[in-house]
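Bumping my old thread because nobody answered last time. Still need a sequence for this structure:
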C-alpha cells in the first residue's frame, strides 16, 4: 500500500527508525472525579527477596467511542503493585509511591525485580513505600494461558503445545496472534490515551490532588521517560486557566531509568535535535496518521513481532521450569521464515552464517538457561535495548561474534551505545558432541569458567541473575515483554509541535517544577546520555535492562545501586535537588 505523500520505502524507513530509537486529553472517557471500579489480586512468588507483597490492580475505564470496536477486556487499566509486608495495606497510608511507565515492547512485569528491591531497601531504612508499574492497553490482547499452565504444571511442553502445536491448556486453544481488525483500534490509542490512563490511575488512588503531589513520584524506563516528560507538561482539559489538572501537579518528583525525562522524540544519539516548526508539523500530521492506520502495531517481518516476542517468554518458561533441560525451546519451534530469520539475526556469529544458515543454529546443543541467556545477554544479544548482563556461556568453546555489527563499528561514537558496550561472543561448535551451559552472574570468573572468558566479560560487568530474570518473565500476572506496541505512541512522541499534541502540551517548564533522579546504565542506550537537572547517577556494569533486573546483592558485595537510589529518592525527594 502506498501512503499519501510517502513512498513505501519511506514508510519502512520510518518504522525501522522508530525501532532503532527505542527508548518510547481529554479523551471522552471516565468523567473527571468519577469513582472507578477497582479490583486487586495478590500473586505468589518464588523470589528470594523477602517481605514484599505483589498484586495486580485493575480499574474499569472504558475507552472512548473514538477508539472504535475493541475487546471488552481492553476497557480496563491494569498495573502491578508492590508493597512492604510490614507496611500498611492501604496505599493511601504509604510514605511514598513510585509510579513507572514501561519502555517500548515492555510490560509492567519487567519491573518486578527493581520494584521488590526498592521496596525492601526502603523498608530496611524504616520507610513503607510502594512501587507501581503501569501496563498499556495493548497488552489486553496477550494470551497468558499457556505460560501460566506450564508454570503450574512445571512442564514446558504445556506452553509449547498450546502456542505452537494446537494443544489445549486450561480448557482453551490458542487463537493465534492478533492482527488486522483485531488490532486496528490501536491506531486510536496513542500518547493522549496513555497519559490519560496514568492520570486515571492517580486520581482513582488519590482523589485529593494535594495528596497526589505529596505521595506520588512518577518516572519510567527507556521510552517511559519520554512518556513521563509529556505527562509533566500535559494539560488534561486543554485549558491553561485551570491548573489543577496540569501533569506536573500530579507528581512530586521524576525518576528516569536509563532514559531522560523529556517531552519530545526519543533520540538514538546525544545530539540535541530542534523541534519541528509548527507549520511543518501540521503538514506532517496526516502522513503520520496514514502510517499509523497502515501499521497500528509496531511489527516487522522478523525479530520484532508478536510471535518473536512470545519466543522470549517461551524461553524464560523453559529456563524456569527445567533450567538444565537441553534444547526444549529450539526443538519445539516451528520452521517458518519469521523464526528462521530471527534466530539468524540474533544468534549468527558472522555475516556468512546469517546469509547461508550454515552452521544451522538449530543444531546447537544448549541448556534452556543458556538459550535464554544467549537471547538477552549483553555478550550475545546485538540490540542494546534488549540487553542485560546475566552471566556467560560455559561447557564448550566460544569465539568472537561479528554479526550484525563488528566490534570496530560498534564502538564508533555515532553508534552511541545502541548495540551495547560488551564484546560479543558466540558458540564455535554446532553439533551433538558439544553442550553449552550457562554461568549465572555470580558464577562468572569461577572454576567452571571458560579459558577465554576474560576476553569478553568480568565479574564487575555481570549484575543480573539469569534465574531471577526467568522468574520475572513468567511469574507476574502482567507481561514482561509487550507483543502489541501501538505505533501511534511512537509517532505521537515525534510530534510535540503538531496541533493534536501541542494543544495539550501547555507547561513546557513542568518537568523543572519537581526534583529529578536520573540513573544511567554505563552500557545502556544513548537516551540518557545528557546530564540534566537534578541528581545523576551512573550504574557501572549495567546495560539497558539491568536497571530493572539487577540482583539485590552485587558481585562486589554491595546492595544494588538502582533500587538503593530509588529508595533514597522515595524517602526524601528533595535529595535529588542537592
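Sorry it took so long. Here it is:
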Amino acid at each position: 500500500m502506498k501512503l499519501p505523500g510517502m513512498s513505501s520505502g519511506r514508510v519502512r524507513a520510518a518504522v525501522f527508525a522508530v525501532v532503532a530509537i527505542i527508548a518510547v486529553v481529554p479523551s471522552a472517557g471516565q468523567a473527571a472525579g468519577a469513582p472507578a471500579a477497582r479490583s486487586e489480586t495478590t500473586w505468589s512468588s518464588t523470589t528470594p527477596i523477602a517481605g514484599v507483597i505483589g498484586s495486580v490492580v485493575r480499574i474499569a475505564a472504558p475507552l472512548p467511542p473514538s477508539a472504535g470496536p475493541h475487546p471488552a477486556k481492553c476497557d480496563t487499566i491494569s498495573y502491578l503493585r508492590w508493597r512492604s509486608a510490614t507496611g500498611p495495606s492501604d496505599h493511601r497510608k504509604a510514605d511514598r509511591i513510585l509510579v513507572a511507565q514501561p519502555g517500548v515492547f515492555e510490560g509492567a512485569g519487567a519491573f518486578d525485580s527493581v520494584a521488590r528491591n526498592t521496596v525492601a531497601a526502603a523498608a530496611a531504612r524504616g520507610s513503607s513505600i510502594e512501587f507501581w508499574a503501569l501496563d498499556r492497553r495493548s497488552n489486553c490482547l496477550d494470551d497468558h494461558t499457556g505460560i501460566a499452565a506450564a508454570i503450574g504444571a512445571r512442564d514446558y511442553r504445556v506452553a509449547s503445545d498450546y502456542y505452537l502445536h494446537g494443544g489445549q491448556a486450561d480448557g482453551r486453544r490458542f487463537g493465534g496472534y492478533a492482527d488486522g481488525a483485531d488490532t486496528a483500534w490501536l491506531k486510536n490509542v496513542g500518547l493522549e490515551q496513555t497519559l490519560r490512563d496514568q492520570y486515571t490511575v492517580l486520581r482513582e488512588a488519590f482523589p485529593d490532588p494535594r495528596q497526589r503531589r505529596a505521595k506520588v513520584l512518577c518516572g519510567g524506563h527507556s521510552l517511559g521517560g519520554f512518556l513521563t516528560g509529556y505527562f509533566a507538561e500535559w494539560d488534561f482539559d486543554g485549558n491553561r486557566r485551570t491548573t489543577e489538572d496540569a501533569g506536573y501537579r500530579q507528581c512530586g518528583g521524576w525518576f528516569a531509568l536509563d532514559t531522560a525525562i523529556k517531552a519530545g522524540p526519543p533520540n538514538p544519539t546525544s545530539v540535541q535535535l530542534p523541534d519541528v516548526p509548527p507549520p511543518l508539523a501540521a503538514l506532517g500530521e496526516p502522513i503520520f496518521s496514514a502510517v499509523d492506520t497502515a501499521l497500528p502495531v509496531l511489527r516487522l517481518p522478523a525479530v520484532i513481532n508478536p510471535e518473536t516476542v512470545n519466543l522470549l517468554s517461551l524461553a524464560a518458561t523453559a529456563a524456569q521450569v527445567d533450567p538444565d533441560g537441553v534444547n526444549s525451546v529450539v526443538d519445539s519451534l516451528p520452521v517458518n521464515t519469521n523464526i528462521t530469520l530471527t534466530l539468524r539475526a540474533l544468534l549468527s556469529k558472522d555475516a556468512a552464517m546469517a546469509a547461508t544458515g550454515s552452521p544451522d543454529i538449530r543444531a546447537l546443543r544448549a541448556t534452556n538457561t543458556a538459550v535464554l541467556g544467549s537471547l538477552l545477554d549483553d555478550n550475545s544479544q546485538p540490540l542494546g535495548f534488549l540487553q542485560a548482563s546475566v552471566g556467560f556461556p560455559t561447557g564448550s568453546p566460544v569465539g568472537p561474534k561479528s554479526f550484525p555489527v563488528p566490534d570496530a563499528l560498534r564502538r564508533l561514537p555515532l553508534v552511541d551505545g545502541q548495540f551495547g558496550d560488551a564484546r560479543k561472543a558466540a558458540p564455535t561448535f554446532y553439533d551433538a558432541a558439544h553442550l553449552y551451559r550457562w554461568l549465572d552472574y555470580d558464577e562468572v570468573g569461577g572454576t567452571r569458567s571458560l579459558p577465554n572468558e576474560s576476553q569478553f566479560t568480568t565479574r564487575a560487568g555481570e549484575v543480573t541473575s539469569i534465574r531471577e530474570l526467568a522468574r520475572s518473565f513468567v511469574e507476574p500476572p502482567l507481561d514482561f515483554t509487550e507483543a502489541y506496541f501501538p505505533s501511534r505512541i511512537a509517532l505521537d512522541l515525534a510530534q510535540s509541535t503538531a496541533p493534536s499534541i501541542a494543544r495539550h502540551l501547555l507547561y513546557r517548564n513542568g518537568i523543572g517544577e519537581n526534583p529529578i533522579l536520573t540513573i544511567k546504565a554505563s552500557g545502556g542506550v544513548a537516551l540518557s546520555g545528557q546530564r540534566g537537572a537534578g541528581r545523576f547517577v551512573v550504574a557501572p556494569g549495567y546495560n539497558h535492562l539491568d536497571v530493572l533486573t539487577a540482583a539485590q546483592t552485587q558481585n562486589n558485595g554491595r546492595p544494588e545501586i538502582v533500587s538503593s537510589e530509588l529508595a533514597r529518592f522515595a524517602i526524601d525527594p528533595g535529595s535529588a535537588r542537592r
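The CA atoms of residues 569 and 575 lie 6 Å apart. Let me know if any region looks off to you.
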